[in-house]
Amino acid sequence: MAHEDDSIIIDDQEDVPENRELTEAKKKIANYEFQISHFITEYEKQKNLLEMELEIAKRIQMVIMPTSLDKKIPCCEAAVRTISAAEVTGDYYDIMEMPGDRIAFLVTDAVGHGIPAALLTIMAKMIISKHCTAGVLHSPSEILRVSSHELAQYFEIGYYLTGILAILDRKTGTLAVCNAGHHPGILLDKKSGDLSLLDSKGLLIG
Q1: 106 phi and psi angles, rounded to 5 deg
Q2: Is the pLDDT of residue 143 over 50?
Q3: Residue 88's closest CA among 50, 125, 124, 126?
Q4: Which helix (H) or strand (E) holds 198?
Q5: Which residues are CB-neighbours of 3 under 8 A, at least 6 positions away?
Q6: Is 0.70 surpassed by the pTM of this model?
């Protein structure tokens, strides 16, 4: 007597529906990945643009600083060295011929670093240089006081500089100094070798 085997047929080809929550999660992850990739691309573009602008600003700042001091002051020797902490800086120095056979020595340092400090320094250079060379104001304190009031018209509160302005009268050999919140200057007596601080005190510029 023959027995017919019972058989169970399983269809392996039938797809199992994917969990709806899992599908939505995959879509969100893909969207996040796209946004992150786009953000990184835009960040790199802005970073490269900023680096290029900083390099241009650095070149402009170096152009306005005197590089050949001996041509500006034939009566004496001068040397300078500056090392900035950033691409552009708020530090500045200058030597200017003044009417009446006088020479002005200027050192300034703007608050902060970067482009805002550099812009403040350039503006201060223009204003102080104008008053030094015009021949209307004579003492360093007058020049810095008037320059400070003028500079304050262009910048908000919180933007300021420290500085030292020294004026050498080549006829009399006298040196007049005004310190506007800066580190004291140091005077070296060439004959005795003695050092003395130029510790005059004044208000900040700006």
Answers
A1: -125, 135
A2: yes
A3: 50
A4: strand 195-198
A5: none
A6: no
